[in-house]
Design a protein that fits this description.
Blueprint: H1 3-31, E1 44-47, E2 68-74, E3 80-84, E4 91-96, E5 102-107, E6 116-121, E7 135-138, E8 143-150, H2 157-164, E9 168-171, H3 172-176, H4 202-210, H5 220-227, H6 244-266, H7 278-281, H8 285-295, E10 304-309, E11 324-328, E12 336-346, E13 361-363, E14 377-382, H9 389-393, E15 395-397, E16 403-412, H10 414-417, E17 426-428
Parallel strand pairs: 6-7, 14-15
Antiparallel strand pairs: 1-2, 2-8, 3-6, 3-9, 4-5, 4-8, 10-16, 11-14, 11-17, 12-13, 12-16
Helix pairs in contact: 1-4, 1-6, 1-8
Domain DUF1254: 45-171
Protein name: DUF1254 domain-containing protein
InterPro entries: DUF1214, DUF1214_C_sf, DUF1254, DUF1254_sf
Length: 430
């Protein structure tokens, strides 16, 4: 047993977990044209204009507040231009690199609701910015993804579609009228295998992805350690060629890394510190991994805060065989500039739960929700419909098995953005 090699393999998992999780979605949506989730490849958006249902499995912990616009961009040859019109509601186009760290945002919360044109560039682009741009977003990796969100208001699907399809993407040379650059060669994409995320092939995928992630100064120490065992980003690392001793070291290091992440994730109850820009996430490998594990492509608290419940007020796992209440005092209700909601997910799948009224979330925009005379709000989380009509108005249906409830607040106040806000408990009904 080579303890140093085992330690480096563990660190490689901790450094690269979010990258490999990201690759699962990239491969399904931008590479594998036979996959039902394929978005059309690189360089555009695929919009989802209907609220999610339990049948949608593209992403864990999906939400029904803000239907998605998926996009993937190859920035090796040249930047792309993102153009948006004036938009009268919450929206966000957040551009994440291969690490799942955000290069930047175009959104109502950051760049405003007016029209704009933005340059999205990769790490190799060094030219001057042409005139007529409202901002430049520079990514640290050659490939970038975007899980755009647009608020779904008053059930108006046609208006939602109009806004989504107004998000325009074009290569820079088409906008400037210059000659097209030489296209970058197609990578030899590793075929995604679900088991690859948890077996030794993890390291093969990681080395492939590191080809498109130039070493950042903040990561130089860990990248040098990875390179010392062959994970140098050349794309040539192959666990199939390891001898028995090296293979055992990598397998044990992988197990160590998985156990470490599971432990960290088990004790993380909110999204504070899990998502953000390069400046905010520098060196925070555990945080970005927990974010990728519990809510891939989540947003930072100042834009969208996430919290929730896995256990009840007695410390027991919440499950559909028990009825629960969640009571917010008027002061405890999330203070959000845009809106807030609570969404229920099955476990361990973290997908929406089918129910008789097709209600998957509840919040301040839910029609007919009943508040107390003192401004408080009680949610009733249970499998069977409450007999009392007042309670039924505030019912969030649960499955029979284990579940979790995730709350989101869009444009939260300072207490939310700074991590001081605390949720009330979820309490079993007597």
């Amino acid at each position: 047993m080579n303890d140093e090699r085992r330690s480096i393999a563990r660190d490689a998992y901790i450094f690269g977990y979010a990258m490999v999780e990201n690759y699962r979605t990239l491969y399904e949506q931008a590479v594998d044209s036979d996959d039902s989730r394929y978005t059309g490849g690189f360089g555009g958006f695929r919009h989802y204009s209907e609220p999610f249902t339990p049948e949608n499995t593209d992403i864990v912990t999906p939400n029904n507040d803000t239907p998605y616009s998926w996009g993937w961009f190859d920035l090796r040859a040249e930047p792309v231009v993102i153009t948006v019109p004036a938009i009268d509601r919450f929206y966000i186009l957040p551009f994440h690199d291969l690490y799942t760290v955000y290069a930047g945002y175009v959104s109502a919360a950051t760049t405003g609701t007016g029209p704009g044109r933005y340059l999205l560039a990769g790490p190799s682009w060094t030219d001057d910015t042409p005139e007529g741009f409202d901002g430049v977003i520079t990514a640290s990796t050659d490939f970038v993804g975007c899980l755009g969100r647009t608020a779904f208001t008053d059930g108006d699907v046609e208006e939602l579609k109009r806004i989504q399809h107004s998000y325009a993407v074009a290569p820079l040379h088409e906008v400037t009228g210059s000659a097209a650059p030489v296209a970058a060669p197609d990578p030899d994409w590793p075929v995604w295998d679900e088991a690859a995320a948890t077996d030794i092939r993890f390291f093969d995928v990681l080395d492939f992805l590191l080809r498109f992630a130039p070493v950042l100064e903040e990561d130089r120490g860990i990248r040098d350690r990875l390179a010392s065992v062959g994970l140098d980003g050349s794309g040539t690392f192959a666990t199939s060629g390891l001898d028995a001793d090296a293979r055992a070291d990598f397998e044990q290091g992988l197990a160590d890394g998985i156990a470490h992440l599971d432990d960290i994730a088990e004790h993380t109850a909110s999204s504070t510190g899990l998502f953000g820009t390069r400046e905010e996430m520098s060196g925070a490998y555990d945080n970005r991994n927990v974010g990728a594990k519990k809510g891939l492509y989540g947003l930072p608290p100042a834009i969208a805060w996430y919290g929730g419940w896995l256990v009840d007020s007695a410390g027991n796992r919440i499950v559909g065989t028990t009825d629960y209440t969640i009571t917010f005092t008027a002061e405890q209700l999330p203070k959000a500039r845009f809106f807030w909601s609570a969404t229920l997910y099955t476990l361990p799948q973290r997908l929406l739960s089918a129910n008789e009224i097709d209600r998957y979330s509840i919040g301040d925009r839910t029609e007919g929700i009943r508040y107390g005379d003192d401004g408080s709000l009680t949610l009733f989380v249970q499998h069977r419909r409450p007999a009392d009509e007042t309670e039924a108005a505030n019912w969030l249906p649960s499955p029979e098995g284990p579940f979790t409830v995730i709350i989101r607040a869009y444009g939260g106040d300072e207490s939310i953005a700074e991590g001081r806000y605390r949720l009330p408990a979820i309490t079993p009904r007597a």
